[in-house]
Design brief:
Layout lengths: L1 H8 L4 E4 L3 E4 L3 H11 L5 H19 L14 H7 L2 H8 L17
Helix pairs in contact: 1-3
Amino acid sequence: MYVYVWGRRNPSIRMNFFGLMNFQAPYLPWVLCGFSLLLGGSTTVDLMGIAVGHFYYYLEDVFPKQQGGFRILKTPRFIEWLFESRDAIEDENMVHEERPGGFDWDGREQ
């Protein structure tokens, strides 16, 4: 699933499979499925991942951008609350000079 979604979101990336084949990123799940078939393995899991990845990609990236579309898959609020970063909230209130780290993340000079 993740390979399918990554490939669909990065369609212009060129890939190379063992130096034998050059292809675009959206074809990676199919190349891996073909390689599993070539090695004599079962492609059931690969095909299920492609199907679930396509379903997720459509609901998350395609359908909301259509006219009248909306976002179907939403994270429940209690999970957002459970995993929200309380450290990030504290860091926002911190004076710039007191922030840890030395990299200029926000583009301001120190």
